[in-house]
Specification:
Helix content of chain A: 55-70%
Largest sheet of chain A: 2 strands, antiparallel
Mean pLDDT of chain A: 94
Number of helices of chain B: 11
Order of helices and strands of chain A: HHEHHHHHHHEHHHHHHH
Radius of gyration of chain A: 23 Å
Mean pLDDT of chain B: 88
Structural class of chain A: mainly alpha
Oligomer: heterodimer
Number of helices of chain A: 16
């Protein structure tokens, strides 16, 4: 997207239009001529996959909203009527429910990729922070959407999560009452969650536009972590990136369809097929899988306020890694020590996810604490120190050299 | 190298902990896995089984349990128990529906296809007054009553499409009534059940052999009853399962063909790039071959 657009429409009307609103040139320079590094691997297709998933969620969500009733007495029933009486309602609902899971799966791969290849480093700090904001918005949206089902787990998840804010000293209780719109999770809570659940995806879409804009200013990072220097290092977005993204998106959709059509009960909690009942607490209150690592961090700390602070810090710390990581080399490919600490961190994340689904007792608490400490140490201690002490491997001179060998 | 070993050791420790611990954390006994006609990618409900299950529901379960989300018309819908519309209407006509007449006075009228199955109790409190606890509505019971498979089984389940935890559990529960073992303190009005979490269930054993007569020759045993009612409840909870799996197969074929075509297109397009730049600079796709 650097410099003037080379877009020259042949059609007379398009020429006339382009002079007045150069949107054709914008599309052309962003999605056709835009140079992408030639050495991107399939991990770089997840950006496109995420854009697709956002689209799927918005489209299925709008149609579901036409059939949904946000009222404590009717919400559960209206969702069951979507499942039973709306034509292909079951498909819409499962696409939307698993769409959330696939969205998070893709975003986690996207984030792991960003950290592994140092995509957050200068000059992509703003791009990265916009990504963290999108992730935060996704978490809020996903949580509120889960509450809309108004099953037992919806109700109790809403109770537990909103109660986190009561830990804030002084204003906590007042704040929670304000969030609920009453003195317990109830109809006003459901109504505002519905309103916000409809709003936030469009906010996400807006931040996604900024995210892509920032991406197209800095250009994509790549597995070598060195900038593209000449035409030899890049290929035009279309057809190269489009066809590659398209292929992997189709593969991703196979997994998505597998869940939707064959194992739709796989990630749905049984308790959420029981209508919400404020008088009965489920034996275990577990969040959706994509929140489990943070849930484990929350529960690993005995003090409620500290737990809440740790929970939010675990997400917010991501926004600071462009400055916490002091290494001048981007890609873990040339950072032998960082690579190992990174994989340990991935194990800690997955381990926390598993521990989040367990009762906080015995060895589970100890393991959660170990992983929580490592989770933070990775960002706050290892990242700053490694940049100083790590001996990195020699970088190739250019992207094309790394692909084709020194003779290029 | 040291690091790699640490990583391996840690992974191993986590795996061992994962394998060893769930048994102590969850005391629920895993129900035996049964064969279901609706399992797997081409699974379909067996209409005869659903009809038997429906008979059990009407003669036994419906005395205490409601299925509020099941309408009489559902009985004649494709992918279900396969009743004709006339049969479903006849079932509906036997039900008494509370309604209002034109002047607003409460009346009781025979059911129609569009009506939902009436509940045995006017409301939850009335049910509670009779039974101590309100018997749960059965509309989504087969999806609500599942059990945790634990690590590593839940990973395999994603590939083997094991989705029948609900009916497996219900069938096991219905046959799981036993005398409480020594030392187990069963509260008054409680019943010991091997598979119920915590083992103390409010419902007395509901099924006895020979209680419901089948005219299709199926054995009239508690085992058969348990399977049939579980299959019926699965249909009640997921009435579009057959359609879902059929469309799923079409979607899979479409996506696999699409992915295949995309793969070869990608290969063709990238062919020039993956060669040395001199050739790639030439950019004459006609002169390059795959």
């Amino acid at each position: 997207m650097s410099g003037h657009s080379t877009y020259q429409p042949q059609n007379k009307f398009l020429q006339w239009f382009e002079k007045r609103l150069p949107i054709g040139g914008l599309i052309h320079s962003s999605f056709i001529a835009y140079p992408t590094p030639r050495n991107l691997n399939y991990l770089w297709t997840f950006g496109g996959i995420l854009a697709f998933m956002l689209g799927v969620q918005i489209v299925t969500g709008i149609v579901l909203a036409m059939h949904y009733t946000p009222h404590v007495d009717l919400a559960f029933r209206s969702i069951e009527s979507i499942m039973r009486d709306v034509n292909f309602g079951w498909l819409l609902r499962y696409l939307h429910a698993y769409g959330a899971s696939m969205f998070f799966l893709a975003v986690y791969i996207h984030m792991f990729r960003g950290i592994y290849y140092g995509s957050y480093k200068e000059p992509r700090e703003v791009l990265w922070i916009l990504g963290v904001i999108i992730y935060l918005l996704m978490m809020a949206t996903g949580f509120m959407g889960y509450v809309l089902v108004w099953g037992q787990m919806s109700f109790w998840a809403a109770t537990v999560i909103t109660n986190l804010f009561s830990a804030i000293p002084g204003v906590g209780e007042t704040l929670v009452t304000w969030l609920w719109g009453g003195f317990a999770v109830g109809n006003p809570t459901l109504n505002r969650f519905y309103s916000l659940h409809y709003l936030l995806p469009f906010v996400i879409a807006g931040v996604v536009v900024l995210h892509i804009w920032a991406l197209h200013v800095a250009g994509q990072n790549n597995p070598t972590g060195i900038e593209a220097k000449s035409d030899k290092d890049t290929v035009p977005f279309t057809p190269y990136a489009t066809v590659k993204d398209g292929f992997f998106l189709a593969c991703f959709c196979i997994v998505y369809a597998w869940f939707v059509f064959y194992i739709p009960g796989y990630l749905l909690n049984g308790d959420n097929f029981i209508p919400a009942n404020p008088a009965v607490t489920p034996a275990e209150i577990v969040p959706e899988w994509y929140y489990l690592p943070f849930y484990a961090i929350l529960r690993s700390i005995p003090d409620k306020l500290m737990g809440v602070i740790a929970l939010f810090s675990a997400i917010l710390v991501l926004a600071f890694i462009p400055w916490l990581d002091t290494s001048r080399v981007r890609s873990a490919r040339y950072r032998p020590l960082f690579k190992q600490f990174f994989w340990l961190w991935v194990i800690a994340c997955v381990g926390l996810g598993w521990l989040g689904s367990k009762q906080p007792e015995g060895i589970y608490v100890i393991l959660s604490r170990v992983f929580t400490v490592y989770y933070f140490a990775f960002f706050l201690i290892i990242m700053p120190l490694l940049g100083i002490f790590e001996k990195t491997k020699p970088l190739p001179n250019s992207i094309s050299e790394s692909v084709l060998g020194a003779k290029a | 190298m040291m690091m790699k070993r640490t990583v391996l050791a840690l992974t191993f420790a986590v795996a061992v902990a994962a394998l060893a611990l769930p048994a102590t954390a969850e005391e629920q006994v895993a129900p035996p896995r049964l064969k279901w006609s609706f399992a797997g990618p081409f699974g379909k409900y067996d209409p005869a089984q659903l009809q038997r299950g429906f008979k059990i529901y009407r003669e036994v379960c419906s005395l205490c349990h409601s299925i509020q989300m099941l309408a009489f018309r559902n009985l004649a819908e494709p992918g279900g128990p396969g009743f004709s519309e006339a049969q479903a209407a006849a079932v509906a006509a036997e039900a008494k529906i509370q309604d209002l007449d034109d002047k607003g006075a409460p009346i009781e009228r025979p059911g129609r296809l569009a009506d939902y199955f009436p509940s045995p109790f006017p409301n939850e409190l009335a049910a509670k007054a009779v039974h101590g606890v309100a018997p749960p509505d059965m509309s989504t019971l087969a999806k609500a009553r599942t059990y945790s498979r634990g690590f590593p089984w839940f990973i395999f389940d994603a590939f083997t499409q094991y989705q029948e935890q609900g009916p497996d559990y219900i069938a096991a529960y219905l046959q799981g009534f036993k005398d409480a073992p020594k030392g187990f303190e069963l509260p008054a009005n409680g019943h010991y059940n091997e598979y119920f979490p915590g083992h103390n269930t409010a419902m007395p054993p509901p099924l006895q052999a020979g209680q419901v007569t089948f005219d299709d020759g199926a054995p009239q045993t508690v085992d058969q009853y348990s399977r049939d009612i579980s299959a019926f409840l699965m249909w009640v909870a997921e009435p579009h399962l057959v359609q879902r799996k059929r469309i799923g197969f079409q979607a899979m074929i479409f996506l696999i063909v699409l992915a295949g075509l995309m793969y070869f297109t990608k290969k063709k397009v990238w062919h020039e790039v993956e060669k040395p730049p001199e050739a790639a600079r030439g950019q004459d796709p006609k002169k390059t071959t795959i």
